[in-house]
Write the structure tokens for this entry.
Amino acid sequence: MKLDNNIPYKLILEENEIPKQWYNVRAHMKNKPAPLLNPATLKPMTADELSAVFCRQLVEQELDDTNPYIDIPQEIQDFYRMYRPAPLVRAYCLEEKLDTPAKIYYKFEGNNTSGSHKLNSAIAQAYYAKHQGLKGVTTETGAGQWGTALSMACAYLGLDCQVYMVKVSYEQKPFRREVMRTYGAKVTPSPSDTTAVGRKILKEHPGTSGSLGCAISEAVEAAASQEGYRYVLGSVLNQVLLHQSIIGLEAQAALNKYGVKPDVIIGCAGGGSNLGGLISPFMGEKLRGEKDYEFIAVEPSSCPSLTRGKFVYDYCDTGMVCPLAKMYTLGSGFIPSASHAGGLRYHGMSPVVSQLYHDGYIKAVSYEQTQVFEAAELFAKCEGILPAPESSHAIRAAIDQAVKCKETGEEKTILFGLTGTGYFDMVAYEKFNNGTMTDYIPTDEDLKGGFDGIPKFPGNE
Amino acid sequence: MKLDNNIPYKLILEENEIPKQWYNVRAHMKNKPAPLLNPATLKPMTADELSAVFCRQLVEQELDDTNPYIDIPQEIQDFYRMYRPAPLVRAYCLEEKLDTPAKIYYKFEGNNTSGSHKLNSAIAQAYYAKHQGLKGVTTETGAGQWGTALSMACAYLGLDCQVYMVKVSYEQKPFRREVMRTYGAKVTPSPSDTTAVGRKILKEHPGTSGSLGCAISEAVEAAASQEGYRYVLGSVLNQVLLHQSIIGLEAQAALNKYGVKPDVIIGCAGGGSNLGGLISPFMGEKLRGEKDYEFIAVEPSSCPSLTRGKFVYDYCDTGMVCPLAKMYTLGSGFIPSASHAGGLRYHGMSPVVSQLYHDGYIKAVSYEQTQVFEAAELFAKCEGILPAPESSHAIRAAIDQAVKCKETGEEKTILFGLTGTGYFDMVAYEKFNNGTMTDYIPTDEDLKGGFDGIPKFPGNE
């Protein structure tokens, strides 16, 4: 195998080189992401309104679009040191297999028990809840990575953790559920009879297997109805992208340390937390006119919010209890097909990512899931790591870029985010191995129902 | 949290500090491990005889008890660099939780897709098979970590991989099976109708759920009956301990780099590959009279080969097709209870570890599985990592040592081997979480059957 001089397999940072501040890309955006709206008044949500649902300091971070750097509290830094810096790996074996002149790097966030980057924000949100003197937090989880991450963070800090898990996942992914329980979380299949909204849904739709939207509604109600509890969310929000900027900051520091400048930066995009976190500091350089990069968001063809969605104000949840966010959306009523990339089955997209995409700073592509699993298998065999289906979307796009470089002879440097591992996704791999995995691309007619549910008010079209 | 000056959470080595030679502890043992015997002649197995089953260079390594250092081929070094150096972590959070003056370090081998240290030897054995121009290798797997590791190594080198998986595991652990299939391995539930010995067993015991002994017999037959195939094994053998010395060498290098000297070194022990690999270089120092350490092997009470076994020649497999090895054994006919530490359910113990234990260099303790899972849960909550049941035996012993230090006020430095992750062991965690896990300690009467099957010949008692 050909190795570059001075470029090891893993571009390692020392522990004391882990960033001590998060980077807030909103500070350098000319067009700021639009504020969250109160659905009753259509006025921007105030800090007071948001504080009923979220922790105070997280509300500050949510609303702060001017400070570019925000200190990471020491206790969060200590926790980060348990599993960070995350490896930045040169994909020498994949390059050789593809016989490409391109240089491929990936930032691997799966080397922790949550199996993904979600832990970066989970510990931050749990910390601020603890700091505020709260007893506990509530949340929802679908595929289970966010719920696992939050359970770990709460166990570490001694905070109560209540997770509403989409019922179909609760039953089909018992192992994820047990990981959360091992960390002491209370996991409830949603819809449940523990909340008014859950009981209402159960009455109207007996036998329903649940949805993320319903689980969000239950988690929000559970937080509101218990003294000393707040609701936390694993993606979409500005605060989450802020915490996830640790991914990009570390990647940037490691690349600078070894004198490498990426040309293309690729991330999978569901709610946007990983993509936004990875690209933030590089985007900052681009926004400030210091360097140029090509950014690519990769989403599943079955849930194409960027490539086929509308840039409007929409509900963040199916239950329509949350504020309105301006984002690329398929409509909160859109039900994505049962793809195996559970973490990418969200109807909307982070307002920050949406605004950057709308302003032309980010490109977007979509792939069908069999294409994605082909890439996952190739990657696993070359690079050893068994990737999560979500992460494999970025792998697919990186491979296609590298193959294009082979055709054109360009020696591009490609960086992509490998968000997590697929150990709890073996049902999907089994289908792929058996040749029984199918693809689904929604027709325009399929999308119409979701679009029809987008709230109508002046300026929202 | 109190942090020591100059001791980070993770004692990191650079890639170029990964050892380039394995350490062969046999070279410094006064009493060498006894040679393997041909069961027909009761004479030591010759290199020629062993070469019918194993690759040539592995046979050399198996028989070499004089060379202390053996070069690691460049291609294996390259592969090691994909997932090594493995982290050596200071367990600050666990220390704080235990309120102990002891300092606890663990060498974590679970940050690769095989989920354990098994990959260290799998890549070596696959490499030598490839180097000899073979087409493929056969093996057996129980819990599945070894089979996964070998599948990964073979996929990387383009070698065919045939795994005989104990039927009950094949059915109960479909996810492990799918990981192997994703890496291109052919996985056959054992006993199967693909071998004569499998067909014989199926005829005699229709409906049997298989055993490791039976799977070994099938894998050996499969290797012998196909041109260009050899059999490989994931533990017990001298060659495996040699490859696994990379664990101890890295740990030693990292500790030296930061000026730390352990007092107690702890590893779980099934076949002995992890324990032997971890302790080898430290044991070398002790054998050469340079430094002193306390070594502790930890085994399950349900399969107590060191603490209750006999040090005699015995068959390595239930099918009695393999050579005789002199080791601590419960008898090849001993059927351990269905504990959840599948990787520790082996009737015997590495001849190297057995000899060192017999000569008083290693102590051994045993624990019941609920004690082990209590330790696993505490560790997961403090340190984030969800440990494998096997590894958790070492955690239990390390915690007990640290608690003893609290009582005596001793500031011992404890090093233990954290061999892997428990992501595929959630059925066991679920039982523990639900309070339905039970313990089993065999009575003397239970052990008698196994002992009765040990071959009788002069000197073997």
Notes: Residues 166 and 190 of chain B are 5 Å apart (CA to CA). DSSP finds 18 helices and 15 strands in chain B. Chain B has a mean pLDDT of 94. The first strand of chain B starts at residue 10 and ends at 11.
